[in-house]
Amino acid sequence: xxxxxxxxxxxxxxxxxxxxxxxxxxxxxxxxxxxxxxxxxxxxxxxxxxxxxxxxxxxxxxxxxxxxxxxxxxxxxxxxxxxxxxxxxxxxxxxxxxxxxxxxxxxxxxxxxxxxxxxxxxxxxxxxxxxxxxxxxxxxxxxxxxxxxx
Length: 150
Hints:
By secondary structure, the protein is α+β, with helices and mostly antiparallel strands. The protein has helices spanning about 10-20, 55-65, 125-130, 135-150, and strands at about 40-45, 50, 70-80, 85-95, 100-110, 115-125. A hairpin with a 2-residue loop joins strand 3 (about 70-80) and strand 4.
């Protein structure tokens, strides 16, 4: 583990508190307060990458911080069943040269027996949410998906 057990147990209230501090309403995101809650062998996966280990996970978070001008997250709903916490969110990424981009998704956290986040799986439609903000292209992209897959 990184340190001794986290000060607070990992539950719905702790997640709401930590994630609300992580994604500021002004400025770049800051994960420094949440890293101690992650297991040293964290497995993080989303639609574009799979990362294993706290060192690679913290590097990924730093890369995201440098790429965005500002990043906000709103938790819409959250539930817990034993060692699994799942929450739905809207994350709005603001870049220096591009319009704000809201992405809609869900996160599944698996908590280890000793109280650390052992796995984090983020689910979202990266390209669909980004393409929705490009005039005319978003509609073409959706028509393509419906024609080929729906």
